[in-house]
Amino acid sequence: MSNVRPESMARITTKELADKFIAEQVSEVQKQVGDKKVLLALSGGVDSSVVAALLIKAIGKQLICVHVNHGLMRKDESEEVIRIFRDGLDANLVYVDATDRFLDKLAGISDPEKKRKIIGGEFIVVFDEEARKLTDVDFLAQGTIYPDILESDGVKALHNVGGLPEDMKFELVEPIKLLYKDEVRVVGKALGLPSSMVDRQPFPGPGLGVRCLGAITRDRLHALREADAILREEFEICGLSKKVWQYFIAVPDMKSVGVKNDKRYEGWPAIIRAVNTTDAMTATIEEIPYEVLHKITARITNEVEGINRVLLDLTPKPVGTIEWE
Ligand code: XMP
Known about the structure:
The chain has helices at residues 15-33, 46-59, 77-88, 99-106, 112-133, 146-151, 181-190, 195-198, 218-238, 290-303; strands spanning 37-41, 63-69, 92-97, 137-141, 171-173, 246-250, 259-260, 263-264, 268-276, 284-285, 307-312.
């Protein structure tokens, strides 16, 4: 397949078109791979999840999914990957909890670009270690999608991390590389993936690492993860999760004075960011009803250890980027 999307290729908008695409790709992949093994870094994001489900359909246990938990996932994210793929689809899934390795390397590092480099670099090291434990793997599957090819050099799944070492030579399997994101979602649904996985918001490769601002500590990261889970839960309840493109909490490395149970309580602020955009180049602020904001504030300040204030970021992009780091 060439990298140019043929003019004749109709957008995949319905279950029928998705089923047809799936049947074509299943036979293409079977032809390409034969009886060999394929490796896939399964982050749990939309693209890698859809590739995993598609390849499981095509080649079953010849696909080896490696899920690296870098300790910067949102609450229950890794558990969901295991539940859906290992328990639900009977995938050949290697789960690596590398939390300590990542957090130890990140300790004391406050520069955002250094943090990104460490996370990306360590991801490669961990993934490479797992790949070397396996034998007879000739192929590497990637969740490259069409905009990745248009916007960059086409190397996607590992685009946050720079690529595998030179001696790790694989032939690529990229079954969704001609699809736009909305088409990937339609295909994912046709493959039976749950909405919680297929309709999820974008999540940066370095994960909560770029939202736990400055030098990451385990206690502040834990507070961020819990506060973020509450925000997502409340957006789900009031329906904002369907209207807002990206929403999350950021927790800066600073404390203010507060009072809890009649005692002085020093804590971090949790900053709510909720933006709408089509291409992430510019973004507008989604209005959140005050009653929802009050409920979120009450829950986060009562339920999350270490947080004593909740703030709302009203800055569009530009001037503010979507992420804080
Ligand atoms: P910014 O913060 O630049 O973000 O306005 C635009 C979009 O990109 C995501 N983002 C990242 N995604 N690795 C990623 O995979 C990164 O390092 C990264 N930084 C920002 C961000 O979440 C938003 O959707």
